[in-house]
């Protein structure tokens, strides 16, 4: 069953616990936690102390997306702070094979993120080491950007790569996702759809989340 992962980037940081709890009550299973360092991406968000605090108040699976320049040094600390999944950008990692293994040994699911310009073919050999791949469908750094149209084609390519090799890979997509394009994402082969501004920027975040979740479930049945 595909899942919608609300992104806290568009939540109200003054009431983060409240917003997270609302998503849990709405039926979410995952929470997307965007870490930006003002270096790899031109924006700064939250890090380990905020993650550790959220860990204490939610049972959601916390999906940490590291948009930082030094994931080789920092990724494991996010697992210690309570991440269930940790994804690192292909563009930032020096020793990807080793880092994915270290994240797994610490007890979290390791994932690799690809920027829009990075082709899925770079993952050909490392794919069996990934629990999931996150396809960025905007350039990372900001919420509420426009969906990049060639992203679904990347998802389709990645899904065939994974099927051809008999892998049990989860594919996540992040950026510009909302009720209007969630079904297309699932039809292309996406398992997890991240959504920030479409949910938290809407009049009724709970309802928008549920609309997206239903659309995703329906698309999965039909495809
Ligand atoms: C952007 C972040 C996203 C962001 C998506 O760099 O990685 O997770 O929250 O925001 P929306 O859903 O508004 O495009
Ligand atoms: Zn993200």
Overview of the molecule:
This protein is α/β, with parallel strands linked by helices and 223 residues long. It has a single domain (3-222), classed as Alpha-Beta Barrel (TIM Barrel). Helices cover 38% and strands 19% of the residues. It has an 8-stranded parallel beta sheet. Helix 1 (16-26) packs parallel to helix 8 (205-222). It binds D-xylitol-5-phosphate and zinc ion.
User: How do the SSEs run, as a string of H and E?
Assistant: EHEHEHEHEEHEHEHH
Instruction: List bound small molecules.
Output: D-xylitol-5-phosphate, zinc ion
- Identify the CATH homologous superfamily: Aldolase class I
Number of helical elements: 8
Mean pLDDT: 98
CATH level-3 fold name: TIM Barrel
Total E-strand runs: 8
Break the fold down into its secondary structure elements and pairings.
Blueprint: E1 3-6, H1 16-26, E2 30-36, H2 48-57, E3 61-67, H3 71-80, E4 85-89, H4 96-106, E5 109-114, E6 132-136, H5 151-164, E7 170-174, H6 182-188, E8 192-195, H7 197-200, H8 205-222
The site of D-xylitol-5-phosphate has 21 residues, from strand 2, strand 8 and helix 7.
Summarize, please.
The protein is of the alpha/beta class and 223 residues long. The protein has helices at 16-26, 48-57, 71-80, 96-106, 151-164, 182-188, 197-200, 205-222, and strands at 3-6, 30-36, 61-67, 85-89, 109-114, 132-136, 170-174, 192-195. The chain has an 8-stranded parallel sheet with strand order 1-8-7-6-5-4-3-2.
């Amino acid at each position: 069953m595909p899942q919608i992962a609300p992104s806290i980037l568009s939540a109200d940081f003054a009431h983060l616990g409240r917003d997270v709890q609302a998503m849990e009550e709405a039926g979410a299973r995952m929470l997307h936690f965007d870490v930006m360092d003002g270096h790899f991406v031109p924006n700064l968000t939250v890090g380990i102390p905020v993650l550790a605090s959220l860990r204490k108040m939610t049972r959601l699976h916390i999906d940490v997306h590291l948009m930082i320049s030094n994931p080789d040094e920092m990724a494991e600390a996010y697992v210690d702070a309570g991440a269930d999944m940790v994804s690192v950008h292909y563009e930032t990692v020096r020793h990807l094979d080793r880092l994915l293994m270290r994240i797994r040994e610490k007890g979290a699911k390791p994932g690799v993120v690809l920027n829009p310009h990075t082709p899925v073919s770079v993952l050909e050999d490392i794919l069996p080491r990934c629990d999931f791949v996150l396809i960025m469908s905007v350039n990372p750094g900001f919420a509420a950007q426009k969906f990049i149209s060639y992203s679904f084609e990347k998802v389709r390519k990645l899904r065939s790569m994974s099927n051809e090799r008999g892998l049990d890979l989860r594919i996540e997509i992040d950026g510009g996702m909302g009720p209007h394009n969630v079904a297309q994402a699932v039809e292309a082969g996406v398992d997890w759809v991240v959504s920030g501004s479409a949910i938290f920027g809407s009049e009724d975040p709970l309802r928008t989340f549920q609309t997206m979740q239903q659309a995703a479930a329906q698309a999965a049945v039909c495809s």
